Amino acid sequence: xxxxxxxxxxxxxxxxxxxxxxxxxxxxxxxxxxxxxxxxxxxxxxxxxxxxxxxxxxxxxxxxxxxxxxxxxxxxxxxxxxxxxxxxxxxxxxxxxxxxxxxxxxxxxxxxxxxxxxxxxxxxxxxxxxxxxxxxxxxxxxxxxxxxxxxxxxxxxxxxxxxxxxxxxxxxxxxxxxxxxxxxxxxxxxxxxxxxxxxxxxxxxxxxxxxxxxxxxxxxxxxxxxxxxxxxxxxxxxxxxxxxxxxxxxxxxxxxxxxxxxxxxxxxxxxxxxxxxxxxxxxxxxxxxxxxxxxxxxxxxxxxxxxxxxxxxxxxxxxxxxxxxxxxxxxxxxxxxxxxxxxxxxxxxxxxxxxxxxxxxxxxxxxxxxxxxxxxxxxxxxxxxxxxxxxxxxxxxxxxxxxxxxxxxxxxxxxxxxxxxxxx
Length: 424
Known about the structure:
Blueprint: H1 28-34, E1 40-45, H2 52-62, E2 68-73, H3 77-90, E3 97-101, H4 105-110, H5 129-133, E4 136-137, E5 140-141, E6 144-150, E7 152-155, H6 157-162, H7 171-180, E8 188-191, H8 198-210, E9 216-217, E10 222-223, H9 228-243, H10 255-263, E11 267-272, H11 275-281, E12 292-295, E13 307-314, H12 321-331, H13 334-342, H14 357-362, H15 366-374, H16 385-400, H17 406-422
C-alpha cells in the first residue's frame, strides 16, 4: 500500500545516526557540550520522484557540520516498518529521525522508540489542524507532521452532466446514482480499496466515522465499535455489495487497481487519494477532462475521511537531537513544504499553501483536499495498531463477502479489540 498515500510514489522515512537523547530545549552552548549537533543520516524508502536529494543538498550547503547522508529502505510499507522496528528494538543508532506513517506514531511512542518533542520548537499553529493530532500520543507531541492526505470521491462529471445530475453529497444520493445511472453506461457504480490490507482499514474507518461512530477512543484505551453508528457504516459497505453498486471485482482492489479502473472509464465513482487526480488527468487517460472530485459523502451530508501521510519523529537513541530538531524544522518550513508539493507531488501540511492562488491554479484539487483534511480523523490510535488493523480487515472482509451481518461483525470486532487492548 502507498502508506504515505501521496500523489506520486514517494515514500519517505527519515533517520539520523545518533545516540543518547539530550532534549530539544538546550541552548547553543549546552548543545556543544552535550554533542547534540553533528552529522546525520536521512533514510528514505523509495524516493521515486527524486525530489528529496535537492532539499538535502540545500541543507548540506548551509549546514556543513550537520551533513545529512541519504540512505534508502525498501519502498514496501511492511518491509520499511519491519526494518525500523528491528533497528529500534536493538538500541542501535542507525535510525533516528523517522518519517513514519501517521498510524505508527502511537505504537512507536508507546514502545519508547521515539522521544517526545517540545511543542514550542515547531510551528504547529501554522499546520492544518487535524494533522497535529496524528503526531500526538497520551497528550504529548512525539512527531511533527510532514505530509498529509485525505480521501476524495472522484466522479464522472461528463456522465452526471449528461443526465442532468449533480455529484452526490450524501450516501443516499451516491447509492441512487451508482445503482441507476452507472448500469445505463456500462459502468460499475462505486469502488474503494476493499482488499484485506491497510486500505480496507481506511475505508471501514471512514464509513464508521462518517456515520458518527468510532472504532477506538482515548488513544486506544476504550473500544467503541459496537454501536449503532458503527453498524450503519458497515451496513453501507455490505449493502453496496449485496445490491450490486459495489462490484465483486472491487473486493480485490488496492489503490492502483481502483485507480486504473476509474482511469480506464469503468467506474462512475471512486474513493481514493489525491494522487489519482494527476494520473487521471494525464495524456492517455480515458477520463481526462471528464471527471471531478469532492469530499467524501456521509449519511446526511459531508462524510469523514481518514488522514493519510507521514510524521517526522526522532529516535530515543538520537546522538544529535538538536540537529535532528533543526532538520525537522527545515523540512516542515513553508518554503520547503511548497517544494514538497511542487517537486514531490506530496500534499503539504502548511495551511497557507492550500489558499495560495498560484498553487491552486497548478493543483486545482487543493481546496477540495483542504476541506477533506479539515474534517478528517486519524486511524484508530493504539500502541498495538498493527493488530487493530488486522482485526478490522478480517471482520470487514467477512461483512463485505456477506458472510456476517453488520450486527454480528460489530460485536465480533468489539470482542477482538477488547482482547488486543488487554495485551501487554
